[in-house]
Amino acid sequence: MADADDSKATGGCQCGHVRYELTAPPTDLYVCHCRECRAQSASAFGISVIVDGGDIRLVSGTPSVWTREATVGGTLDCHFCPHCGTRLFHGTLAPGETVSVKGGSLDVPPDLSGAKHIWTSRKLPGVVIPDHVETWPEEPE
Ligand SMILES: [Zn+2]
Ligand SMILES: [Zn+2]
User: Fold this and answer.
1) pLDDT at position 85, please?
2) CATH at residue 107
3) H-run or E-run covering 105
């Protein structure tokens, strides 16, 4: 029988200062093409692995927080490594809160073949979305 700990997803920043583990499996997976995700990732799109804020356990290091206005109203806490700047989580790290873990920070990166693509109206030319997946031109309803 497999040890339950073996199935826990782990991740961290680029320099290794901040390390975390997810104590429960993610509930959803999004590829977001919005301008904010392009800016936070400094790349073509953001990968959001959705978990409950109580299911993220920091193993080492303390992320810094930058707070911005959320597109849907209110504010959003953006957690990042104070040394290398890697963005790690968006949201409040408390039980009952929806948190987006930045997908590229996971040691085993997510399989994007079934991911939902959102804000496709902002998609960069040349980025190809698989035919069969759920897509939303803007924020999903
Ligand atoms: Zn770092
Ligand atoms: Zn986005």
Assistant:
1) 97
2) 2.170.150.70
3) none
